[in-house]
Design a protein that fits this description.
heterotrimer, B: mainly alpha, 0% strand, C: alpha+beta, OB fold (Dihydrolipoamide Acetyltransferase, E2P), five-stranded mixed barrel, 5 helices, 28% helix, 29% strand
């Protein structure tokens, strides 16, 4: 029997969604201050309007949805998925008011892209936008990478048992510390420490490269945010190519690769368990799949003789493959270059890297290294079972912070989620081909959206068909929340009509 | 082997923790540089084999 | 640590890599990328008659234009990045080079442009760089286009020999949108009222 949602259920969901929207509004204060500091009055007004709408809606919802009940698992998932839709719709207000978007859907596309740390964008004339708007774009990726729910947990929600359920609804389930609020704070410690170190490094290098101190500072903070969150937004339309510097690229790569690591791994290494870095299944899997992807891409590049010397091959190949594998989306080549110069084999290497993605419980996307590693282990176990005597009991171990035994339920859930990701990639590809794009290009772009990478081969553009924009928005949303929250939302809507 | 200094709660006031965190950061950065080394090797060897 | 049990995986990875790399054996690597497509008429001759090219053409036909002397005209954006005696600037040749969105231009797609490597002295001619507050100078450069620059790690760039200003830029007049400011003010007042409503609701609940 499907139980129809009651008023109290709506109230709980409304209450927590309200808090998250208030959080979003408070976040807009940062770009507001930046705009005021630079004398950008109209953007400041745009943010004022955005803050006003967020606070009005959030406070209204909170006021009329007061309840003492705590969240259940279903509520947690629903708050996660629904608040993301709300945030996308309302967070787009400053974007839309800036005048740089062809339609409100374009603005929503950019918000979903930022929050899900994808990095595809439909904003036009990026090189002339205000510093305030640039701050908002990059802050969105930083906040989205942390998880807007983690943010809410830090400031606005008490650490009840229900709070953990909302945290899981957003696709993280690692308990770094016994209490979920403590876990959220530990995640912040790691992110903020790297923010300071990373920004200062990029600032120093930027100034050394000839940038003015103020510009270098903001670029450093913004590029850091885009890198750590594996988002991929950059302040100029040239993306990381703008800096023309090996040192800058190396630091960026270090930041975005570290950003793609599991927060639980960071915590383990930071708190004395340094061996974790070489024992962890995700790190091993990442190194293996990176090597394979790099080999495929390099073969493609060398076959076509694209780059004239080893350093160029390394710089371009490594940056794009690592950017793809960590689902960052920074690039040091133009989008069309993938098609015009790199060719299909190199593109497929990058596509494979993007599809697999980063580590779980990180800022990255894709179907995650842990699942890739577990699939390898499952295959190994299956092969060992085949060659062992029938009565033998084959035990496959895997290590992630602790050593565990690979059991059927784990294998089952891993396979299911990977299948959902592949289906998502497939749907996007089919839609792309339907609209006349070449299969390799449609696949590349669809995987980029679904894995929240953000590398583009030129398919994404303001002139793209509306249906494709909507499909990509859904892909980014689904990929970021890892499906469960979406299914919960779908199920809830069904229960509204079919439940009693 | 002596028991490694471990932390299982968040204590921002204990200064020993910060040294531990910093050494952790160093280990992580080195791991990434190792990956870059592998990338460079691939960029070097593949064209050489192809020739 | 690498143990005996890891050997099958290592062999598999090496084997797979060998499978990928074997087709490479015997492949001649062209001297200068796929520009070595003999028989294809390459526009303007390698004799130094520079041709004006758009930025998208340079990307779409990168190999064709590689190594040729070209004329490129675009709006200087961002800032100059001086590195010793040379300098990087970026010229945008797109729908916004004459008038950008902040000045009321119609939407016309993404920015499109190229990176220019030029003498730092020449760059001093540029007054305005395009950003939120400025429409940048329109600059004309003549130089060699590199689809994959050897000197700059494979970047696509133009090594310019000359630089002229076609049109000087200007600061942009932004008129403050007072209606919107009023809307913002009203919304904040509404939010303030709702804040008290919420407070009452919480107190009532407890």
């Amino acid at each position: 029997m499907i139980v129809q949602p009651r008023l109290t259920d709506f109230k709980i969901i409304g209450l927590y969604c309200g808090k998250i929207i208030i959080g979003l509004g408070l976040l807009m204060i940062v770009p507001l201050i930046v705009s005021l500091a630079f004398g950008e009055w109209n953007p400041a007004i745009d943010f004022l309007v955005g803050i006003g709408v967020c606070l009005a809606i959030g406070l209204f919802t909170e006021a009329f949805c007061q309840t003492t009940r705590d969240l259940t698992w279903a509520h947690g998932l629903l708050v996660a998925s629904f608040s993301w839709i709300l945030a996308t719709a309302i967070g787009a207000i400053p974007h839309w008011l800036s005048g740089h978007f062809g339609s409100y859907i374009d603005a929503m596309f950019d918000i979903m892209s930022g929050l899900s740390t994808t990095g595809l964008f439909l904003l036009q004339d990026l090189d002339h936008i205000s510093n305030g708007l640039n701050m908002w774009r990059h802050l969105l990726t930083y906040a989205g990478g942390q998880g807007i729910i983690v943010i809410a947990l830090t400031f606005l929600i008490r650490g009840t048992a229900g709070a953990y359920k909302v945290y899981v609804g957003e696709g993280k389930d690692e308990r770094l510390l016994p209490n979920v609020i403590q876990t959220a704070r530990a995640i912040w410690l790691i992110s903020l420490t790297y923010l300071v170190i990373g920004s200062i490094s990029l600032w120093a290098v930027g100034m050394n490269l000839g940038q003015s101190p103020v510009k270098a500072f903001f670029h450093a903070v913004w590029v850091f945010m885009g890198a750590w969150s594996t988002g991929g937004f950059a302040p100029q339309s040239y993306n990381i190519l703008y800096y023309h510097s090996l040192m800058f690229e190396v630091i960026c790569a270090v930041i975005f690769i570290l950003g793609s690591f599991n927060f639980a791994l960071h915590w383990a290494v930071w708190t004395g368990k340094k061996s974790e870095i070489r024992k962890n299944i995700e790190i091993i899997s990442f190194f293996v799949t990176m090597t394979v992807a790099m080999l495929i891409t390099t073969s493609g590049l060398v076959k076509l003789g694209v780059y004239p010397n080893v350093l160029s091959v390394f710089r371009k190949m490594f940056f794009q493959v690592a950017s793809g594998h960590t689902t960052t989306g920074f690039s040091t080549i133009y989008s069309r270059t993938f098609i015009v110069q790199w060719g299909p084999l190199a593109m497929l290497g990058v596509t494979l890297a993007m599809a697999i993605g980063a580590s779980a419980c990180s800022t990255g996307g894709g179907f995650k290294g842990i699942r890739m590693g577990l699939i390898f282990k499952s295959i190994r176990q299956a092969v060992r079972r085949l060659i062992s005597p029938e009565s033998a009991y084959v035990v496959q171990k895997w290590h992630h912070i602790t050593t565990r035994i690979l059991d059927e339920p784990t294998t089952y859930s891993v396979m299911m989620i990977v299948i959902f990701y592949i289906m998502t990639y497939a749907v996007g590809t089919i839609v792309g081909v339907f609209y006349g794009y070449e299969p390799v290009q449609a696949l590349f772009e669809s995987v980029s959206a679904g894995s929240n990478t953000g590398l583009s081969c030129g398919v994404t553009s303001p002139a793209m068909p509306v249906l494709m924009k909507i499909v990509y928005i859904i892909e980014m949303w689904a990929g970021r929340l890892e499906f469960m929250s979406l299914f919960a939302l779908g199920g809830y809507i069904m229960a509204l009509f079919r439940g009693r | 082997m002596p028991a490694k200094f471990r932390v299982n709660h968040l204590d921002l006031k204990d200064l020993r923790n910060y040294r531990l965190y910093l050494s952790g950061i160093l280990v992580e950065v080195l791991a990434v540089l190792l990956l870059m080394g592998i990338g460079f090797l691939i960029a070097w060897i593949v064209p050489w084999i192809g020739r | 640590m690498i143990r005996l049990k890891h050997i099958p995986e290592i062999l598999l990875t090496l084997g797979f890599s060998a499978f990928l790399v074997c087709p490479m054996m015997g492949t001649q690597i062209p001297a200068q990328g796929s520009a070595a497509q003999s028989g294809q008429t390459v526009e303007p001759s390698t004799a130094s008659v520079p041709t004006e090219v758009t930025s998208s053409k340079l990307v779409e036909e990168a190999n064709k234009w590689n190594g040729h002397k070209i004329i490129f005209i675009g709006e200087a954006i961002g800032e100059d990045m001086v590195r010793g005696e040379k300098c990087w600037i970026h010229l945008n040749e797109d729908a916004y080079m004459w008038k950008n969105i902040e000045e009321g231009a119609k939407l016309g797609g993404y920015n499109s442009g190229h990176a220019i490597w030029v003498d730092a002295d020449l760059v001093k001619k540029i007054t305005y760089y395009g950003d939120y507050l400025h429409e940048g100078d329109i600059v004309k450069v003549i130089g060699t286009f590199n689809s994959v620059c050897r000197e700059h790690g494979g970047d696509m760039d133009i090594h310019a020999d000359t630089l002229e200003i076609v049109r000087i830029g200007h600061p942009i007049e932004h008129i403050i949108n007072s209606k919107r400011a009023l809307l913002g003010g009203v919304l904040l007042i509404v939010a303030g009222i709702l804040f008290w409503v919420r407070r009452i609701a919480i107190l009532r609940r407890t």
